[in-house]
Amino acid sequence: MTMRAMCLNLCGIMTVKTNLLISIINVMKKTMLMLCSVAAIVSMQSCKMKSADSAVEGDAAAKVYVAPGKYDEFYNFVSGGFSGQVSVYGLPSGRLLKVIPVFSVNPENGYGYSEETKAMLNTTNGAIPWDDQHHLDLSQTNGRQDGRWIFANANNTPRVARIDLKTFKTSEILQIPNSAGNHSSPFITENTEYVVAGTRFSVPLGDADVPISSFKKNFRSTASFISVDKNTGHMNIAFQIVLPGMNLDLSHAGKGPSHDWFFFSCYNTEQAYTMLEVNASQKDKDFIVAVNWKKAEEYAKAGKGHKMPASYAHNTFDESTQKATSVIEKDVLVLDPKDCPDMVYMIPCPKSPHGADVDPTGQYIVGSGKLAALIPVFSFDKITKAIQDKQFEGNFYGIPVIKYEAALHGEVKKPGLGPLHTEFDGKGNAYTSMFLSSEVVKWKLSDLQVVDRVPTYYSVGHLMIPGGDTKNPAGKYLVAYNKITKDRYLPTGPELCQSAQLYDISGDKMKLLLDFPTIGEPHYAQACPATLIKDQQVKFYDISKNHNEYVSMGEKKANVVRNGNRVDVYMTAIRSHLVPDNIEGVFVGDEVYFHVTNLEQDWDVPHGFAVKNSTGADLLIMPGETLTMKFDANKQGIYPFYCTDFCSALHQEMSGYLRVSAKGSNVPLKFGSGVVATDVAANNK
Ligand code: RUQ
Ligand code: CUA
User: Fold this and answer.
1) Closest ligand to 78 CA?
2) Taking Cα atoms as reference points, which of 12, 17, 1, 2 lies closest to residue 43?
3) What is the CA radius of gyration of the chain?
4) pTM for the complete prediction?
5) What is the DSSP letter of 435?
6) C or N: which end of the chain has fewer Cβ atoms within 10 Å?
């Protein structure tokens, strides 16, 4: 495609692809008077983009080449957006290593289907098989990544998950009450003291039934602070701060000097509840909400909050019983800024800010106003001083509003269009994604001058530098996560892939190295040196510590037990057979529970398990683990079952038969295998 054709196409996409773009441009037209025609500038900027080929230099291939058998330098954890999962890539190769099921069921391994994992997806509205997963944050100690856990948010049905990086499994999911659209989440404090969860959609507290038009009076946003147990990682909502009705968008914790603070961006301070694309873009400035969580902690301890009845699910996976349980929590401690002076301040921020990002020193807070023509950078020292000197310009529902100029370090002028997110390299540079002008812009924190810009293909959302939101970024690479790929990949029907782009940021100029497609829609991501994680992996579960109530400790323990119309099959799997492999005496109307224990004690020897016509999903059982599939015997017949994971040369032989007979027939309950010949009577003695 010629350069010109590509630009025309791209400009076409920018006008046709989403209404969002058009409405953003419309709002910008109104607000950015100095730009004679924003649309023209968008197309100008787009057309300035180099073609893909010329943007890649000759040595790019060598820089991303990881030789066969060699490891990548970084793990890259990428949010799945509407896939509800988290995917793991190696950097710099961009190779997909794993998809971790978090908020969506995963038939591949039975997550959300097996009896052991079903409870992970429980909510106060029953089991929910899906969510919209946007942001991730790796646990930290002293502001540095510690490789223990990664936290993930669910937007739609507000939840926060903790994934254990020893097993790459979801260990805990906590639902958030008094919230909707859990978007400014799951950002963490420097020592993982807290994970936050802020509402994007304000709602009435306590699920009250009120007219939508009573938004101003009845709707509230909340910022929940979830404490994380230092040793176990166990989460609990420590307190929830009630804020005015508006949309909390994103957040980041302070660090170093700003350690005690959390910064949330918000939009819709107009408090619109209809036609937000117009009505929530009226004001020139919204806010960065600065929350002193240390103070909040003290107020909570001093009894300044009140316990409010609430109902939310708290799901944990117990490694020893290998089973998830779901508990419904009954209340939440609520703090109102009215009763807690000096806990919350508002900082005016142009215009409908999206990202709220804190630099590695903890001194600078960057608000990315997606409709603003500049990037405001606030200084923590100045914020502190402004609070001391009471340099306020009024209040918002009683919360003091600091004067913009008093908090401002300075503005990055003409950075590009549609700033969304900022990360840092630890060398004094910031990198901001520009959604509308499709580029990454590098600027200096000291003098706020733009020093470099590179195109993205296309419409970058989040960007990420390994450790780029911590005290010590690795700073070698930057990854842009793009919303639109258009002509970059082989077409795949109406939906084209979304993708990540890897840039080398080790020199003065950013260099594009690699494109790689992603699972679902990528939003925020995290990356850390592989050395932090790779040597702590659980290789298999010690079978002697398997306390699953349906474990079979060896083939001799295999069994089939009937209780009314429930039939429990205690089954074992080891290369290359299942015990028992013949089961008879099951009748139409029975509920059969296959409890399959993988007896292997070796790394990377899972066995799979599937039954013909099962309406559930595959089980993928790790060595030393027990998983359970419920099978409804609906129709008479012979049902083969087999191992689905090619585990040995005799994998194809790893199979068996279940016989389902008509109700009322007199087929005795019987099971066995060529390895262990037994029957129910012998086994139950
Ligand atoms: S948001 S770009 Cu959750 Cu910025 Cu995705
Ligand atoms: Cu076990 Cu194939």
Assistant:
1) 1
2) 12
3) 27
4) 0.92
5) T
6) C
Q: How far apart are CA 134 and CA 186, in angstroms?
A: 9
- 3-state DSSP of 291-314: EEHHHHHHHHHCCCCEEEEEEEEE
Pocket of ligand 2 (CB under 6 A): 573, 607, 643, 645-647, 651, 654
pLDDT in tens, 309-328: 999 999 999 999 999 999 99
Chain mean position to CA 501: 19
Buried b or exposed e, range 516-526, using 16+ CB within 10 angstroms: bbbbbbbbbbb
Residue 673 CB coordination number (10 Å): 19
Whole-number Å distance between alpha carbons of 19 and 278: 12
- Distance between CA 314 and CA 235 in Å, rounded? 9
Q: Render 308-375 in DSSP notation, one character per residue.
A: EEEEEEEEEEETTTTEEEEEEEEEEEEE-GGGSTTSEEEEEEESSEEEEEE-TTS-EEEEEETT-SEE
pLDDT grade for 129, boundaries at 50, 70 and 90: very high
pLDDT in tens, 376-387: 999 999 999 999
**Residue at token pair 């600065």:** 290
What is the distance between the alpha carbons of residues 323 and 314, in angstroms, rounded to a whole number?
Answer: 14
Instruction: Please tell me the distance from the alpha carbon of residue 365 to that of residue 354, in angstroms, as a whole number.
Output: 13
pLDDT digits (tens, 9 = 90+) for 403-434: 999 999 999 999 999 999 999 999 999 999 99
Provide the angle, in degrees to the nearest 10, between the axes of the packed helices 19-31 and 3-16: 90
Tell me the C-alpha distance between 46 and 482, whole Å.
15
Cα 185 to middle of ligand 1, angstroms: 11
The pick from 469, 524, 526 for probing ligand 1's pocket by mutation, whose C-beta has the most ligand atoms within 8 angstroms, reads 524
